[in-house]
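In this section we walk through a basic example: taking a raw amino acid sequence and producing a predicted 3D structure, encoded as discrete structure tokens. The instruction is simple. Fold the sequence below.
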Amino acid sequence: MPHMLNVTARQELISKILDTLMIVVEDARFDFEEDGLTVRVVDSSHVAMIKLTVDAAAFDGWELDAKKIGLEMKKIREVTTLGGSGDLIEISHQDGQDFTMSLGKIVRNLRPLDNATMASPPSLPKLDLPCKIIMNGAELGQALKAAKQVGDLVNFSIDESSFKVHVRNNTDSVNISFDKDEMDELVCDGAARSQYSLTYLEPLSRRFGPSDKVTIQFGENFPLAMNFTFEDGAGEVDYFLAPRVESDY
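The resulting token sequence is shown next.
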């Protein structure tokens, strides 16, 4: 008996999923399970990695047999841009057939990608990072936007009492400082500094809502680990970004 999939989702939920994943890749394997959706992606240079999960409860309809479907996200986005916030999009698929998206009177059929030709989803790194902060996502997003106006590489520095964002180019610089009492949490035994690419970091910051809390972990020239939720906690994003160490620049 062929495996089937029938899912209904609000346009803004699908858009949020796509906007997050497409920071890193254009194609992805979507793992539909009984309890929800999981997608793991890594960019071609293995600098940035995302694991995104969404509980089945976040969808308006979730009736399926577990299946893994490779999709070109640009084509899915073409459909979502035809709708508005609150519009429902119905998604259906059966083995050996097209992936179908229905929005109002529009029915778009997409041919799934061959999973056998796609790279296997990455395994998440197990990191023991020495410093951790939890802060308002909108404030972090504003800081990263200001940083991107000056350069493409951002310096994060931290000590027991503050977290700083700094960028300098040949003529300009920008500095943003957050004291410990301005954040929900700051844990760090000693001073640390690391540099990261804003090409991957700044677009992600646009996904934060005004009340979202973002957890950031890093250390001296360590990878950056970032975690945030959406859909009232039903969706979760784990984001990993390799540092730019001194020999890289």
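Looking at the output, two observations stand out. The chain has two domains: 4-117, 131-248. The chain has a mean pLDDT of 93. In the next section we compare this with other chains.
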